[in-house]
Structures are given as structure tokens and as C-alpha cells.
Amino acid sequence: MTSVDSRPDAPSTPPIPSARRWWILAALSIAQLMVVLDSTIVNIALPVAQQDLGFDDGGRQWVITAYSLAFGSLLLIGGRVNDLFGRKNSFVIGLIGFAGASALGGWAPTFEVLVGARALQGVFAALLAPAALSLLTVTFAGSRDRGKAFGIFGAVAGAGAAVGLLLGGVLTEYLSWRWCLYVNVVFAGVALVGALLLFPRHVKEEHAKGLDWLGAAVVTAGLFLLVYGFSHSETNGWDDPLTIGFLAAGVALLALFVMVQRSVAHPLLPLRVLLDRVRAASYLIMLISAVGLFGVSLFLTFYLQQSLGFSPVVTGVAFLPMTVAIALAASITGSVLTTRVSPRITATAGMLLGAAGMASLTLIGTDSSYVSHVLPGLILVGLGLGLIFANGMGFATIGVDNADAGVASATVNTAQQIGGAIGIALLSSVSAAAATSFATESGPSADLAEAAAIAGFQSAFWWAAGFFLVGALVAGVLYENRIPRSEPGADPVLVH
């Protein structure tokens, strides 16, 4: 069977009915929600899991880091596997594997099994996440509803972390911390039924070639060392020789990866994917905004529970306004603004809203109230992230050839994961340093520990606001003052 002519007027493959497209979007969104919320759903459950399994404080970060390490370092390979062996096949295998790893983690009798299960989740997430985005890309290729679909998908991707906090609190408080992992079996089961019943089969592109094993090894090692270096800095500091060594080695390997991609016949990540201004801007704003998203979800969780005395469930509910704001802004942006306003305007506005929200959160104190000091900042950040994610997800794959859709999708997910890892590590270090400095400069008092912690939170929010401002500059410079309308070169061959 031959591939479809890439000319705009070439005959297309049998189109997917409009109603079926929306059901496909629903299945893809469930899978994306599962992958994103697993970055945060175990956070609230960690104290209970630690008591149950008896691991020390140093082990807590590995329950989170094992997932992000495997996920972030394997995403590009997962994206290319999608292109080589079929997106539907990758999606189905990713769902089944993710569900199995989650069940293993929920059952885990020891700390080692739990960490291993989390790493396995990351492996299958690296296959699943780019499959979901590339399937969305080809499902709505050429459709007038493309912007609306990506707006919905972006809302799910942006709200997933906050949903994870809420769901984690509810499951931990009313069932067991283990259900924070078991619940993925339910999500995966629903998405799997949708995939088997609805998804057309993606036939390998004629232009898809073999896997670049050298590039795969170099980029996997580079991303692993980069993420590990940032994670290592949380406990050992930025001046620790191992932290510096891991980060330097990671950067060097990523630079080598670029050189490899320029010289091999069939690169893992063709540089043409990165050299388009619209796509490059989308990857960068997703990376930068992830710093802010993970920053607010982490430090505000501590503040709400430690300073305001919120329970895990109430803490999760407190994030709902941000979740709703993300969903509304992303949906409106995707369905209305992306076809009428250039991404330079909407993405820059989103970054500025995020910066304003973070600046607002720096006003928190020991006697602050949720309604007057927390809620306004959450809404502003949510609105900003909604604008950012609708643009970042929507334009990350625009204009790519079908043979590159999977790796382009993987690149935007990689940017988000690396941004989150940088955000957690960098802002944690900033917060700890600010808290220590406050305690040193202040005289002894009964409330010193709480005041120092809040000083640390305020410093982290200021830094996050700075990242959003940098993002506004990136969006304003890299995005052009026009509405990108190019679609992938050709629809894939679909067999119903």
C-alpha cells in the first residue's frame, strides 16, 4: 500500500467521522491525564507510604524521581518507536504496560519494589505519551476542529498535576495510599477499550527508517544524567562535585547528540523538527511553564498543609480553581483564539498572567487566608497555563511530516518533563537557601521555623515568576506575528 501524496489537493484516505474523532480524543485525553497526574498523585501519599514500608527520608524523593528519570530520558526513543512500529500499537502496549506497572506498585511489599514499579511506569509512559499526541495530530489533521481538540488536550495536560493532588488526597485519606497506583488500572482500562474499538490502524510510513541506536544511547544517557543531576542537587546542593559532574556530563552528551543527529543517515530526532520557529518556541514555552506549574503545586501544597493546616483532601480541593482556570483558558484558546490571534500574543499573555499569579503568591504569610492571598494567584496562574498549554501542545507538531509526528510529540513531552525536574530541583534549593538565610538573620522565636519556611516559599514563587517572564520574552521573540496554518505533509495511511 502506498503512502498518500503530500500535495494539498491529493486524494485523502477515508476520513474519520466527526463524532468518532471526539470519542478518540476522549480516550487519548484519559491516557494523557493518567500520565501527567502520576507526576504528583503520590506526593500527598508519601508520608503514609513511608510509614507503611519503613523507608527513610532520603528514599522519599526516589519514589518521585524514578518515574521522571525513566520517563524523561526515554521519551525520544518512545516517539521514534511510535513512528516505526505504529502509533496504535505503541499506545495499546503503553497502556497495558503502565497498568501492569501501577498494579505492581500498588501491591509493593517493599520500598525497592515500589521504586522499581515507578521506574517501569516511566518506561511505558515514554511510549504512551508521544503516541497519544501523535494520534491526536493525525486524527484531526486537516479538520476545522483541530484547534479545539488541541485546546481540550492541552487543558487535560495542564490540569493533570492539580488533579493528581486532589485525587491523591482523596484516595489516601479514604482508601489507601496504594490506590494512588491502583487507580491507573481503571484509567488504562477505559482508554484501552476506546483504543481497541475506535482507533484506526496506523500503517508504517514509507519514509520511516530504522532506529538510530547511537543517537538513542547518547540522548538517553544525556537526559538521564541531566535529570539525575538536578535531582541530586536537592539533597546534596549545587556545589557538590557529583551534582556538577552529572550536570556537565548530561550537557556534554546532549551536545554530542546534536552532532550525531547531523551526521547519521536516519537520525532519532531530525533537526528539521527543531529548526522551525513555531515548533521551537512551543517546546521552549512548555519547558519554562513546567517550572512554574511544578513549583506552585509543590510549594503551595506544603504551605496549605503546614501553615494553614489543610488536610490532604482539602489541599486537593484548594487547587480546583486553578484546574478549572486551566481548562477554561485552554479550551477557549484552542477553539477560538488559535484561529484568530497569533501565538505570539496568546502565549506571551499566558506567561505574563503566570508571572503575575506567582508574584501574587509571594504575599502569603503566617496569618494569610486562602481566599484573599492564595485564590487570586491560583486563578491567574491557571489562566496563564491554559493559554500556554493550548499553544504549546497545539503547535508542537504543526507542519511536521507524518514520519516525524511521533518524535515531535515526544519532544514536547520531554520538554515538559525536563522543565518539571529543573523546577522542582532549582526551586527546592532556592527555597531551602532562603529559609536558612531567614533563620540565620532573625532572632530566636517560637514561630521562627514557620516564618523561615514561608520565606522559602516566597523566594521560590519569585523565582517562578522570573521564569514566566523569561517565557514571555521567548514567546514574544520566537513566535511570529501570524497564525500558523500549515498541517503535516500528508495524512497517514489508515486502515479501518
Automatic annotation (TrEMBL):
GO molecular function: transmembrane transporter activity
Principal subcellular localisation of the protein: membrane
Domain Major facilitator superfamily (MFS) profile: 24-483
Domain of life: Bacteria
Record's keyword terms, sorted: Cell membrane, Membrane, Transmembrane, Transmembrane helix, Transport
One GO term describing the cellular component: plasma membrane
SUPFAM superfamilies in the cross-refs: MFS general substrate transporter (SSF103473)
Family matches, as Pfam families: MFS_1
PANTHER family, per the entry: BLR6921 PROTEIN (PTHR42718:SF46), MAJOR FACILITATOR SUPERFAMILY MULTIDRUG TRANSPORTER MFSC (PTHR42718)
Protein name in UniProt: Drug resistance transporter, EmrB/QacA subfamily
Organism (species): Rhodococcus triatomae
